[in-house]
């Protein structure tokens, strides 16, 4: 069956998988990718002021021909404009919408030292109909506790990085969310297969994938779904869009498969894999330094060669 809508604590609902316009696409015109996502069946679009591509999302919504009620739109306040209401109004102009369905504080740092006053404006724009629901992103338990002390309207969502390798450290956070009626949204769930291939979860994913005639990517999303977490993902390829949405039609993972992914994920990617990742970064930096050194050497050599010629000409 397709991905269901999940009830929010404020009485609204949210589609349980979202296409994100994400950091990887920051500042890019991605309306074609977003329009492909809508055409393939995504109904939840996740964007942010920080991504600098809200206009692309707006273009895709208009060109899709879908009615406003058929698309759930999330955007996030980055804090670059301290006037929260004005920043949301600017986002709405860029998106070509009268309201968003969900408005989040993107980073706790954006509201540092002024959380109560910022949240009060979030409550006001919700009351004014500029957004239907309000929430946060990347908040820890401590930061949520601070917010709940002053909130008149509680956040309905906390969007965080969520994958098997950080499940152990996120477990307490998800329990806190459940206790306070906060839904978890998860991004970067595919890191085990994109950044840390060959890690301890790979064999567990492969076994489940074989049983369900699925891909490891689909098993990760099935695991996220089993945790009651909304999936936030992105891709530029139509075949991946179809692969992701097909997870909604897969049979549920068995409890022992979920437990095995939890257990393998708790060990994290091997230290060797972490070292490889760090080494790749170091190699890239060394390569850039080397190219710069060669260029500077060439420039200095050229200047030295030009010196005597100039003197002779004079």
TrEMBL record:
<feature type="domain" description="NADP-dependent oxidoreductase">
    <location>
        <begin position="23"/>
        <end position="190"/>
    </location>
</feature>
<dbReference type="InterPro" id="IPR023210">
    <property type="entry name" value="NADP_OxRdtase_dom"/>
</dbReference>
<dbReference type="InterPro" id="IPR020471">
    <property type="entry name" value="AKR"/>
</dbReference>
<dbReference type="InterPro" id="IPR036812">
    <property type="entry name" value="NAD(P)_OxRdtase_dom_sf"/>
</dbReference>
<dbReference type="GO" id="GO:0016652">
    <property type="term" value="F:oxidoreductase activity, acting on NAD(P)H as acceptor"/>
</dbReference>
<feature type="active site" description="Proton donor">
    <location>
        <position position="51"/>
    </location>
</feature>
<dbReference type="Pfam" id="PF00248">
    <property type="entry name" value="Aldo_ket_red"/>
</dbReference>
<feature type="site" description="Lowers pKa of active site Tyr">
    <location>
        <position position="76"/>
    </location>
</feature>
<protein>
    <recommendedName>
        <fullName>NADP-dependent oxidoreductase domain-containing protein</fullName>
    </recommendedName>
</protein>
<dbReference type="GO" id="GO:0016616">
    <property type="term" value="F:oxidoreductase activity, acting on the CH-OH group of donors, NAD or NADP as acceptor"/>
</dbReference>
<keyword id="KW-0560">Oxidoreductase</keyword>
<comment type="similarity">
    <text>Belongs to the aldo/keto reductase family.</text>
</comment>
<dbReference type="InterPro" id="IPR018170">
    <property type="entry name" value="Aldo/ket_reductase_CS"/>
</dbReference>
<keyword id="KW-0521">NADP</keyword>
<dbReference type="InterPro" id="IPR044494">
    <property type="entry name" value="AKR3C2/3"/>
</dbReference>
<feature type="binding site">
    <location>
        <position position="106"/>
    </location>
    <ligand>
        <name>substrate</name>
    </ligand>
</feature>
């Amino acid at each position: 069956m397709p991905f269901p809508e999940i009830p929010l604590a404020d009485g609204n609902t949210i589609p349980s998988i979202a296409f994100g316009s994400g950091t990887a696409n920051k500042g890019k015109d991605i309306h074609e990718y977003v329009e492909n996502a809508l055409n393939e069946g995504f109904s939840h679009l996740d964007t942010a002021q920080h991504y600098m591509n809200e206009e692309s999302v707006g273009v895709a919504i208009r060109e899709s021909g879908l009615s406003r009620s058929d698309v759930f739109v999330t955007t996030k306040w980055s804090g670059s404009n301290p006037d929260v209401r004005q920043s949301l109004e600017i986002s709405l102009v860029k998106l070509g919408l009268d309201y968003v369905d969900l408005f989040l504080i993107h980073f706790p740092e954006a509201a540092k030292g002024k959380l109560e006053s910022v949240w009060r404006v979030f409550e006001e724009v919700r009351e004014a109909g500029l957004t239907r629901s309000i929430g946060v992103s990347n908040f820890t338990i401590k930061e949520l506790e601070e917010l709940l002390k002053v909130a008149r309207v509680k956040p309905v969502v906390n969007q965080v990085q969520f994958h098997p390798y950080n499940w152990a450290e996120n477990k307490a956070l998800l329990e806190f969310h459940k206790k306070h009626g906060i839904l978890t949204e998860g991004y970067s769930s595919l890191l085990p297969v994109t950044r840390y291939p060959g890690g301890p979860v790979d064999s567990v994913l492969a076994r489940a994938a074989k049983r369900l005639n699925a891909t490891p990517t689909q098993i990760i999303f099935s695991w996220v779904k089993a945790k009651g977490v909304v999936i936030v993902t992105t891709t530029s390829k139509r075949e991946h869009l179809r692969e992701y949405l097909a997870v909604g039609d897969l049979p549920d993972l068995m409890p022992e498969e979920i437990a095995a992914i939890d257990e393998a994920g708790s060990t994290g990617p091997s230290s060797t894999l972490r070292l490889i990742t760090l080494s790749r970064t170091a190699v890239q930096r060394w390569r850039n330094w080397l190219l710069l050194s060669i260029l500077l050497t060439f420039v200095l050599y050229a200047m030295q060669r030009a010196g005597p010629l100039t003197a002779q000409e004079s």
